[in-house]
Amino acid sequence: MEAYTSFAEVYDTFMDNVPYEEWADYLEDRLKEYGIRDGLVLELGCGTGSMTELLAEKGYDMIGVDNSEDMLEIAMEKRIESGHDILYLLQNMQEFELYGTVRAIVSVCDCVNYVTDKNELQEVFCLVNNYLDPQGILIFDFNTEYKYREILGNQVIAEDRDECSFIWENYYNHTSMINEYELTLFVREDEEEALYRKYQESHFQKAYTLREIRGLIEKAGLKFVAAYDAYTKKAPMHTSERITVIAREHGK
């Protein structure tokens, strides 16, 4: 997984279509459903801290883990502005370490799809099980194979903003189920001269089926609890683009 570098400074601009507030409300409802109203909560793949901040606002003691130093720098700027007592750790999901256990672990925006090796994803779930309190809860989402195949596919997506623009060249390999996207960014550096700097990054995600995800969860020692069409209480459909999964610590 390549860490976001040049994209970090404009990440929030291009993610302004993500309903973070609605997702945070959903996560809070699910956590309360399983008796978690406060205490330590870890966000894996926290990025620039948008969700971490919202959950901290709801009263949870937040820890954020991400492998991009650039993204965490922005997250820490948000922490200064909000005054929330959030601990940020620069770590890979596959190797994260905590000082103790937490009541819940969450991960949003298809972070698990960036773990493109099944054994490594199982290791993520093993670490989750290890660092959850007894009967602690894991909630995460993932992009479906349907989304990569039918929605993203092999196409070029472009977006132009005043301060930045991007070209997203997407390629999906049906055999390996790997989705690759090449990002070309043009970020404004001088407003008076209207000068833009060009950056390029490559990113890879793996399409997993719900059956595969459930199998990896259970092999890691977690108990699979439920799966929903993303951020609803509806059952997943074959046309679901994103699925939310809930699992529980099941004895170490």
UniProtKB/TrEMBL annotation:
The keyword Transferase applies. Pfam families: Methyltransf_25. CDD domains: AdoMet_MTases. The keyword Transferase applies. One of its GO terms (biological process) is methylation. PANTHER family: TRANS-ACONITATE 2-METHYLTRANSFERASE-RELATED. Residues 41-136 form the Methyltransferase domain. This is Class I SAM-dependent methyltransferase. One of its GO terms (molecular function) is methyltransferase activity. It comes from the Bacteria. Keywords: Methyltransferase, Transferase.
